Amino acid sequence: MKVPKHPTLIRRSLQARQKELQAHGPVLAASLVTVRRTCGNPNCRCARGHKHPGHYLTWKVKGKTHSAYVPLALLPQVKQWTQAHRRLKQLVRHMTQLALALIRTHVSVQRRQRGRS
Ligand SMILES: [Zn+2]
């Protein structure tokens, strides 16, 4: 992300992101992974390499990884919920960069003003 130099532009950029900072549905802070497995039946096509895909959510709590099986019927919804989290996370990251940039410009403006007097 490109951070503007001027405080006014930084504030404008922050405000624009603030408006985007809302959820239009559930937000799920976990990653969706696909695992391919064999079912154990030697006559099944999975035994010949066409493994069964299974979808899981994984997330961490205090460094420990947890997981949950996602039924195929819920997969489209769950995908949306995890995408919503990714979008919000990126917004927060960008807003943090902008807020820090704003703080830095404030410090340099004060330094300049102090230098002038
Ligand atoms: Zn199978």
Strand order of the largest sheet: 1-2-3
Integer average pLDDT:
93
For the record, the count of structural domains works out to 1
Topology pattern, helix = H, strand = E: HEEEH
- By oligomeric state, this entry counts as single chain
Large-scale geometry: elongated
Question: Unreliable stretches, pLDDT < 50, 5 or more residues?
Answer: none
- How is the main sheet built? 3 strands, antiparallel
Distance between the amino and carboxyl termini: 36 Å
- What is the strand tally? 3
Strand % is: 15-25%
Q: Tell me the helix content.
A: 40-55%
Tally of alpha and pi helices: 2
SS-based class: alpha+beta
Cofactors and ligands present? zinc ion
Give a quick summary of the entry.
This protein is of the alpha+beta class and 117 residues long. The chain contains two helices and three strands.
Structural overview:
The protein has helices at residues 7-20, 75-116, and strands at residues 31-37, 52-61, 64-70. It is α+β, with helices and mostly antiparallel strands and 117 residues long. It has one domain. A three-stranded antiparallel sheet has the order 1-2-3, with helices on one face. Helix 1 (7-20) packs antiparallel against helix 2.
Layout of helices and strands:
Blueprint: H1 7-20, E1 31-37, E2 52-61, E3 64-70, H2 75-116
Antiparallel strand pairs: 1-2, 2-3
Helix pairs in contact: 1-2
